[in-house]
């Protein structure tokens, strides 16, 4: 696996077939049409996401790793002794390893991952590198209430680690709901260590979601490949294209699949009509100033105890407490 592999890999992040078709059809009846972002992450999509992380324009992963290189020791100090580290999404490792290397006496590492195979690989890799740290994998959906395994000894605190700015994929309401759920899981003395991409100039952000090699475009259009295979649809891949633009007012990248002509598509037993240039919304990636993030945290009853930026001030990591 690549050095800059990523956090968000859920090829099983989908409901069983009937419900799957129903969700897709409902999204396509919406105005505007819409498809859920978890559709990205089938096996091919997860590979493409890893390739995105290696594109020169996609600064997020590189900068978060640079941030951890610069500050992991300080972060570990703030988290303190006897931490139980619960990660949302099983880390490929790079950033998690940097943290574990500096935590003095971790009680346990609990990767929460919906997809069994990446979870298994994570456990295997981490156990090999950190034989002294008990790994307690949890195969499940981190957006739902978690039942954390009983730790091998009493932790001083439970810290939920949510890197990658994946929080940015949730709309404001859902993001606050997810943080509120995390707040209850971490308990009274606990905390949340969370990555958040910073607001910056539009050109830099838009380039990250429109790489020259076209990997992000392929990642986006892979959704249609997946629908053709799994739902039984006949999207013509030549007649749709990727579009990602930064909405300055909302502070987020908005990704669309755009129909290049007027056309009809069969989706299951349904017939869906597209106008020329009609856009289907497929993903938001929110960007946060430090004040934005503090505001989001406050909505969930949390405060920012400390923040760190990478050396180029592109990406941030916040430590949230009650
Ligand atoms: C893994 C969700 C953080 O939003 O930047 C990358 C996913 N989408 N390029 C992001 C993504 C298009 C990524 N996250």
Automatic annotation (TrEMBL):
Its EC number is 2.1.1.44. GO terms for molecular function: L-histidine N(alpha)-methyltransferase activity. One of its GO terms (biological process) is methylation. Pfam families: Methyltransf_33. Keywords: Methyltransferase, Transferase. The keyword Thylakoid does not apply. Residues 23-320 form the Histidine-specific methyltransferase SAM-dependent domain. PANTHER family: ERGOTHIONEINE BIOSYNTHESIS PROTEIN 1. NCBIfam families: egtD_ergothio. This is L-histidine N(Alpha)-methyltransferase.
